[in-house]
Structure formats: structure tokens, C-alpha cells
Write a structure and sequence with these properties.
The complex is a heterodimer of chains A (424) and B (450).
Chain A: H1 16-22, H2 39-47, E1 54-55, H3 72-81, H4 96-107, H5 112-115, E2 119-124, H6 126-141, E3 147-151, H7 155-163, E4 168-172, E5 174-175, E6 180-181, H8 183-192, E7 198-202, H9 215-228, E8 231-236, H10 246-249, H11 251-258, E9 264-268, E10 281-286, H12 290-308, H13 313-323, H14 326-356, H15 364-368, E11 373-375, H16 380-390, E12 392-393, E13 399-401, H17 410-421
Parallel strand pairs in A: 1-12, 3-4, 3-7, 7-8, 8-9
Antiparallel strand pairs in A: 2-10, 5-6, 9-10, 11-13
Chain B: H1 13-26, H2 29-33, H3 62-70, E1 77-78, H4 95-106, H5 121-132, H6 137-140, E2 144-149, H7 151-166, E3 171-176, H8 180-188, E4 192-197, E5 199-200, E6 205-206, H9 208-216, E7 223-227, H10 240-252, E8 256-261, H11 276-283, E9 288-293, E10 306-311, H12 315-333, H13 338-349, H14 351-382, H15 390-393, E11 398-400, H16 405-415, E12 417-418, E13 424-426, H17 435-448
Parallel strand pairs in B: 1-12, 3-4, 3-7, 7-8, 8-9
Antiparallel strand pairs in B: 2-10, 5-6, 9-10, 11-13
The chains are: A alpha/beta (424), B alpha/beta (450).
Chain lengths: 424, 450
């Protein structure tokens, strides 16, 4: 390559042909990246020509015909805003209106924290963006801290904190034997972590297991967090979607707030408003007073600015249109409950089908778990059989997206699961 | 602090906090049951782990609008942020954009599902064609990977993160001056940032010699940020001949071009003309990165629509590069927002709508060119000292007036004109009605202020 380096400032070249041969391929060493384990499932599903194929992979809601749903309240909101508003830049912290309504959902309509302006909050790019903003903020302002992440968790959580250069540790969460919560293991890890550690908690409808602590267990966790002075970041991607009641789904957060914790909260409207592709969410951080909240918010904005400058307006407008109109909000609550109820119904149906088939295993966990996902307990090998023999697509950790189950395919699904699990 | 002596029945914030503290100190029923769960005295203090966080300074550009909004003067003028305004001083949603939105809204078959990580496929293909040319051999050879990103900022950041992980020379050269956010974007992505001379205050034009010297002494393989057209903030662009020399120099040192294209079509009014610098580089068969924004040229500011294209040596490389770009994007925001990209795709793929867009785009560019002429004439007719020809020589949304920060402060205070302290004015914020006011202010600043 030495002949390519010209000493001095002469920069005339013989011809453009010479220039062509001089440019080297910069990316020859670039390896093909592994497919995303979750999003790769849908890619494979789409490529499958079989008419019997079933997609219970990615967590996007489907109606009983297996079709994606746009909520009526969303359609109405879009009708109202189309052609009306301009498309000017939002402030770096996003739509103030949307953020205010969003805080009410998480913290309560009459929250003192909101009244006292103690919450630093910015619009974020759905749940992913909210978590990433927090991770970057944590790195910048608590540079020596680590993040404790439950086992298992949504795989992208690991990517987010890794890219933010925050070291990760894990804490016990899922109990494979009972297909429930490993509460003793969890509490041990909370106790043994150094004082003042940062923990990532799923507020409700844990992804991928569907296993949530009970109210009593949340209270104990909160108490132990108090003793240890830990920081709790709640990732709430399914408020309203879990039980059908947003207030109930926020219980874990409210318990922590009652105990005086200064929490962080990542919220997403991807599932509960069906706004997946709009990328609408919110990151909030509870502070000691309003001045601190102003400071923290300004720093969150400093992190957003070199990432995307300001967040997208369309989805935020949909959210604030719906939440600030009492009738539209009522409609939304009804539609969210409808989605949650359908999923709860499918859980019951799947369990009953498996029992009717005479499965030797216990499928209690299907109805005990909550939210979009069911951690079936199937092994990767069993999952591969489901895919190869039955054209059923799910992530290899055995996670079933119940939103993909319909009255039309639940029998087929139960049969397939029975086939691959009946020998043990 | 809200006082406790108002007539409301609700307690003051101070009262509420005290009662919360009291609850902690008295303990909860659980404590009585298990002494291990007793609240440690220090835990009740509830000190924030972020207590040490100081308030960040206002963003210098966006802060101008904040100050403008606070000003009650009826003659105030906002020449700060670069968002297009009509003659009436109003933001503009292009007619063709409204049309596209209606089409989308009325199509009940449309859903709101997640886009793929790389974004909307149609949008990506059409964006690459728009910037590189429909007949670009690089596209025909499948050597280009294009991913949808969040406007120009997002495209720059994703590209910078990719370079930070996979490129061998982690230094980027940015022009002096440049958009303020550039240095933050590249810095956060982990690149070392150096500058190359660009603007010549003496001529208010390009310091071409300085540019060649600085790029000439850059290390082999360094990354170079180039504004494709309508340089922000100066409005000073190289000529075609100068671009050719830059290209030759860069290729001779294997410097990697990273184009920021935020004003295609907006600068001259012609989409192809404004892409010439990029196409010149692609034509020689070499590699480069291009960050594209639709914020200004389609007026989609808040929708955050943009694209990052990487022109590679081969289709195989392009495919591997794309897979790695996905790994950058997924932990940032998983997948990009659908709305703005759908609007763009709708317009670009329909011949009639595309032509409509070209007409509206040219009208915006022409209005700005007209404002330049009017301001120049107004200053000349006032006999304002100095050479103001740079106002009509510079191109795009911004004019680097050459006014210093004292003069700028004077104009803000006395004439309620808001601009960034580097003397940059957004021509898009001017109208025939307000040009005289600005000319008066400049005249006063130059003759009275330092």
C-alpha cells in the first residue's frame, strides 16, 4: 500500500482509473452478524410457504383471525390529526402533552410526584429507546454502576446496556421446576448485591416468562430495596395488556412509590395502543425535587440530541389525542381490555386442549402466567421439531406469543405441542 | 416552594414529603414481623442517586427559539433554527405531503406493525435512487446498503457507531465551522474529532487552500465529513472543479467520505444538481457513506425521516455491512418510525406526486434565493458599510453574515431579532415584509455596535 501514500501535497493523479484501483475495500473483514433471535423468527415464518404455518414468535397482537389490529381509537385519532397539524420539530424532550398523560398512567392521575413536578420525563423511541436513554444516562452519571438484569429477560435488554457500556449482572427470577418465580433466589440476590445497586424490573407481564411476583412479594422486594438503597428501573411495556386494567398492572410501581423509592420507568405504547411501528414511549426518573427534575431532564435531552435530535411527532400526537379526550380514552381502555381478555381466553383454551389430549405434563403455568407470553418449558430441540414438523414458529427458548394463538389454530398448536412433549 | 397557608385543602409538597418520611421512620407492618426487614435509618433519607447531576446548558441552536418564544415584542423575528417558513412566516406542510398522508389514512388495510430493523424497504430503495441517481452503477451492482434512520441526526449516529466498531482509523475530520451537533454525535459514537479549515472570514467564502492542506496532512484512511451541498452554517459550497480536486486528494490518501445531505433540492432547487458532489465520488468506484434527511426538503421535520447509505466495493460486503448496521440499531430503538417513511415512499414512487414535489421544492428554494437578493439590495440601498455579496453567493437555508457575537446581541436586544451567536441567519425565516427590519438591524449593528 506504500505506493498509495503520496508524500507532499501533489494530488494530481494519472487518471480516474488509477483512483478506482486505489480505493481499497474497507469492510472485507466485516463478519455477517447473527440474526436477531426474536425478529429472525418472523423472517423465517414469512419465508415458509406452508398453509398451516403458525407464528407465535414476535410479540405483536393479533385478533382471532390472526390479523394485526389497528385500534378504533387510533384510527379516529389519526383521522383527526391528518392534514391538520404541521410537522415541526418537537422539543428534544418530545411532546409535553403526551409525556404528561403518560406519566399519569404510570404514576396515577392524582400523583403528588406529578403535582410537585418531581419527575424528569422525556418522550422516547418506544420501550427500547427509553431503556437505552436510561442506560446512557446511567453510564454518564453513575459511571461505576452495574445493571442487574433478571434471568431470563427480553434479549435486547442485554444489547442495550452492553452498547451503553454498562456492565451487567444477573439476578434469579424464573424457576424452571415450578415454571414460576424463584422468589427466594431473587431475594437472596437483592440482599447480596452491593448497597445502591441498579436493578431492572419488569413492572408486569414479564417478558419472556409471563411470571410476575404477587402483590405481597412486590412489597417484600420493595422493602428489601429500601434496606439496601437499591435503584429500581421499571420496564413497563404491557400496562393494561396484562390484566386488562392499567391501574392494576401498575401496582408494582405504585408499591415502590408508596415506599418512597425514587424510581426510573420506561413506558411503551407499542402493544397497549398497537402503535408498534410509531415508536412511542417515555422515560421518566423520579427526583428529590423539581429543580433536580429539571436538571435530570436537561441531561436526558443531551443524550437524545446526538442520537436523533428530537423524537417523532406522529405517534405522540396519536397518544395525546386519545388520552386527552375522555371519550377516546374510554374507548381505548375498552379495546385494551378486549385484547387482554382474548389472550386470557386463549391461555385457557390452550391449557384445556392439552389436558384433553391427555398430556402427561402439567400445563398450569399457561394460565398462571400473564401477559402476551407463555414460557412453555419446551426445550430448543422440541421447538425445532415444532418448526420443522409443524411449521410453528417461536423463539427457541420455548416462549409462545399468546397473541398469535386463535380459536382457529389453538387445537393445531396444542396437538403439535403434545406430540413433541408427550414422551417427557 | 408552595406555601402551606393557601386555602386549598390539599397539603403542600413540603407537608406531603414530611408525612412520607414519617411513614418510613415509623415503619410498616412487615417490619414488626421480620426484624431483618426493618428499615435502616439511612435508607429513609431517600437521597437520589442522581443528586450530583447539574443542569445542562441550553442547546445553542434550539435555545434561540426558546428565547424568541419568551419575547413579547410584536416585531420579533426568529432567524434561529433552520425550519422553512412561508412568506407569511408560517410553517409549511407541502401539499403533496398532505395528499400522501390522506392516502395513508384512508387505506384501512394499512397496519402499524413494527418495521424491520432496517426500515421500510421501498423507502430505502427509493432514497438510494434519489441521492445516487436512478441509473447509478453502484445501485445496479447491489453495492449499496441503505437503512432507514431518524432523519439526518440518526443516520449520522448509526453510521458513526458502525465506523467506531468496524473501521480501522477512528478519526473524523469535520469542517470548521459545522453544525453544532456533529461534534457531539461523533464524539458519543467514540470517534476522535479533528477539524479542517473551511470557512474564510476574510472572503466569507471557502478557504480552499486551507482545506486541501488540512486534508492533505490527515492520516491515511481518516474519515472526512463533507456537506453535500448548502453547507450549514455558512452556506459556502465548493465549486464543481473544487469538488473534483477534493475527490482526487481524498482518494489518493484513501480518506473515507461521509456525506451529510440535509438539503438535496433545497439548495439550488434541483435534486440532481444538489447531489453532484456525492455522485462524483460514487462514480470513481470508491466507497463512501451518505446520511440523508427529508426534514427540510419534504418538510417532514418532526417525523424524523432519513436514511444512511453505505456504498461498498461489492454486493457481498454490502450485505454483511447491513447485517452489522442492524446490530447498531436494535439496541438503540429496535426499528425506525413508520409514518414519515411511508409518506416519502408514497411520494417518491408515484410519478405525478414526485413531480409535484419537485415543483413545491423549487418554490421553497426560489423563495429563499429571492430573500437573499432582497436582503442584499436592502443593505446596499442603506449604504451599510462592508461587502455583502456573500449573502447572494452563499447557498441554502443559512447565511453566515459575518456579524460578531456583540453585534448579534445588539440586534437581539434592540431589534428583537433572534439568531445564533455565530452570526448565522436562517433565510427561511425571512419574508419581504421583514427584510427591511433585518436590514435596519444589521445596519445599526455594523455602524454602532463593536
Amino acid at each position: 500500500m506504500a505506493h498509495l501514500i503520496r508524500a507532499g501535497s501533489s494530488c494530481r493523479l494519472a487518471s480516474s482509473g488509477a483512483a478506482r484501483s486505489m480505493s481499497t475495500a474497507w469492510w472485507r473483514h466485516v463478519e455477517p452478524a447473527a440474526k436477531d433471535p426474536i425478529l429472525g423468527v418472523t423472517e423465517a415464518f414469512l419465508a415458509d410457504p406452508s398453509p398451516a404455518k403458525v407464528n407465535v414468535g414476535v410479540g405483536a397482537y393479533r385478533d382471532d383471525n390472526g390479523k394485526p389490529v389497528v385500534l378504533e381509537c387510533v384510527r379516529e385519532a389519526e383521522r383527526r390529526i391528518a392534514g391538520n397539524s404541521n410537522m415541526e420539530y418537537l422539543p428534544m424532550g418530545g411532546s409535553v402533552n403526551m409525556v404528561q398523560e403518560t406519566l399519569k398512567l404510570a404514576y396515577g392521575e392524582d400523583s403528588d410526584l406529578i403535582k410537585d413536578k418531581r419527575i424528569a420525563a422525556v418522550q422516547a423511541l418506544s420501550g427500547t429507546g427509553a431503556c437505552r436513554l436510561f442506560a446512557d444516562f446511567q453510564k454518564r452519571f453513575s459511571p461505576d454502576s452495574q445493571i442487574y438484569i433478571p434471568v431470563p429477560t427480553w434479549s435486547n435488554h442485554h444489547n442495550i446496556w452492553r452498547d451503553a457500556h454498562v456492565p451487567q449482572r444477573t439476578f434469579h427470577y424464573y424457576h424452571p421446576e415450578s415454571k414460576g418465580l424463584d422468589f427466594a433466589g431473587l431475594m437472596d440476590d437483592v440482599k447480596n448485591a452491593p448497597n445502591g445497586s441498579f436493578f431492572l424490573l419488569h413492572a408486569c407481564a414479564h417478558n419472556p416468562t409471563g411470571v410476575d411476583p404477587t402483590e405481597e412479594q412486590w412489597k417484600e422486594i420493595s422493602n428489601q430495596f429500601k434496606v439496601k438503597g437499591h435503584f429500581a428501573l421499571f420496564d413497563m411495556a404491557y400496562q393494561g395488556f396484562a390484566s386488562g386494567d392499567p391501574e392494576r398492572d401498575a401496582k408494582s410501581i405504585r408499591i415502590f412509590l408508596e415506599d418512597g423509592h425514587l424510581i426510573g420507568c420506561a413506558q411503551s405504547y407499542a402493544k397497549n395502543m398497537g402503535l408498534y411501528g410509531q415508536r412511542v414511549g417515555c422515560l421518566s426518573v423520579v427526583c428529590e425535587d423539581d429543580k433536580q427534575a429539571v436538571a435530570v431532564k436537561s441531561q436526558l435531552q443531551q443524550l437524545a440530541r446526538p442520537m436523533y435530535s428530537n423524537p417523532p411527532v406522529h405517534g405522540a400526537l396519536i397518544v395525546s389525542t386519545i388520552l386527552s379526550d375522555p371519550d377516546l380514552k374510554k374507548l381505548w381502555l375498552k379495546e385494551v381490555k378486549g385484547m387482554a381478555d382474548r389472550i386470557i381466553g386463549m391461555r385457557t383454551a390452550l391449557k384445556q386442549n392439552l389436558e384433553k389430549l391427555g398430556s402427561p405434563l402439567s400445563w398450569e403455568h399457561i394460565t398462571k402466567q400473564i401477559g402476551m407470553f407463555c414460557y412453555s418449558g419446551m426445550t430448543p430441540e422440541q421447538v425445532d421439531r415444532l418448526t420443522n414438523e409443524f411449521h410453528i414458529y417461536m423463539t427457541r427458548n420455548g416462549r409462545i406469543s399468546m397473541a398469535g394463538v386463535t380459536t382457529g389454530n389453538v387445537g393445531y398448536l396444542a396437538n403439535a405441542i403434545h406430540e413433541v412433549t408427550k414422551s417427557g | 416552594m408552595h406555601g402551606g397557608n393557601d386555602s386549598h385543602s390539599s397539603p403542600s409538597p413540603a407537608d406531603r414529603r414530611i408525612s412520607a418520611l414519617v411513614r418510613h421512620l415509623q415503619g410498616s407492618p412487615l417490619d414488626a414481623a421480620d426484624p431483618c426487614l426493618a428499615v435502616a435509618p439511612t435508607a429513609a433519607a431517600r437521597i437520589s442517586v442522581f443528586d450530583h447531576v447539574v443542569r445542562a446548558p441550553e442547546d445553542p441552536i434550539l435555545g434561540v427559539t426558546v428565547a424568541y418564544n419568551k419575547d413579547p415584542s410584536p416585531v420579533k423575528l426568529n432567524l434561529g433554527v433552520g425550519a422553512y417558513r412561508t412568506e407569511e412566516g408560517k410553517p409549511l406542510v407541502l401539499n403533496v405531503v398532505r395528499k400522501a398522508e390522506q392516502i395513508l389514512v384512508n387505506d384501512r388495510s394499512r397496519v402499524k406493525e413494527y418495521l424491520p430493523i432496517v426500515g421500510l424497504a421501498d423507502f430505502n430503495k427509493l432514497s438510494a435512487k434519489l441521492i445516487l441517481g436512478a441509473d447509478s452503477p453502484a445501485i445496479q451492482d447491489n453495492r449499496v446498503t441503505t437503512v432507514q434512520c431518524l432523519s439526518g441526526t440518526g443516520s449520522l449516529r448509526v453510521g458513526a457507531e458502525f465506523l467506531s466498531r468496524h473501521y480501522h482509523q477512528l478519526t473524523i475530520y469535520i469542517p470548521q465551522p459545522t453544525w453544532g451537533n456533529h461534534v457531539k454525535i461523533f464524539g458519543l459514537a467514540g470517534l476522535a474529532v479533528k477539524t479542517y479549515r473551511y470557512y474564510d472570514p476574510a472572503t466569507r467564502g471557502l478557504n480552499f487552500r486551507g482545506l486541501l492542506e488540512d486534508l492533505g496532512s490527515a492520516p491515511f484512511g481518516a474519515i472526512v465529513l463533507l456537506h453535500a451541498c448548502a453547507h450549514n452554517p455558512t452556506g459556502v459550497d465548493p465549486t464543481a472543479q473544487e469538488w473534483e480536486q477534493i475527490r482526487q486528494l481524498m482518494r489518493s490518501k484513501a480518506l473515507l467520505p461521509f456525506f451529510d445531505s440535509a438539503y438535496q433540492g433545497f439548495a439550488s432547487g434541483n435534486l440532481d444538481a444538489d447531489a453532484q458532489s456525492i455522485r462524483m465520488f460514487v462514480k470513481d468506484g470508491g466507497e463512501c457513506l451518505v446520511a440523508q434527511s427529508y426534514a427540510k426538503n419534504m418538510g417532514l421535520y418532526g417525523e424524523r425521516v432519513g436514511a444512511l447509505s453505505m456504498v461498498c466495493r461489492s454486493a457481498d460486503v454490502a450485505s454483511r455491512v447491513e447485517s452489522q448496521l442492524k446490530l447498531v440499531i436494535r439496541p438503540m430503538y429496535s426499528n425506525p418510525p413508520i409514518h414519515g417513511a411511508s409518506i416519502v415512499a408514497t411520494i417518491l414512487k408515484d410519478r405525478a406526486m414526485f413531480q409535484e414535489w419537485e415543483v413545491e421544492l423549487k418554490a421553497m428554494a426560489d423563495r429563499i434565493i429571492s430573500m437573499r437578493k432582497q436582503l442584499f439590495d436592502a443593505l446596499r440601498s442603506r449604504g451599510t458599510p462592508g461587502d455583502w455579496s456573500h449573502i447572494i453567493k452563499q447557498i441554502g437555508m443559512f447565511t453566515f453574515t459575518g456579524l460578531n457575537s456583540a453585534q448579534v446581541a445588539f440586534m437581539t436586544k434592540e431589534y428583537h431579532i433572534y439568531l445564533t451567536s455565530d452570526g448565522r441567519i436562517s433565510m427561511a425565516g425571512l419574508s419581504s415584509r421583514t427584510v427591511p427590519h433585518l436590514a435596519d438591524a444589521i445596519h445599526a449593528a455594523v455602524t454602532k455596535a463593536a
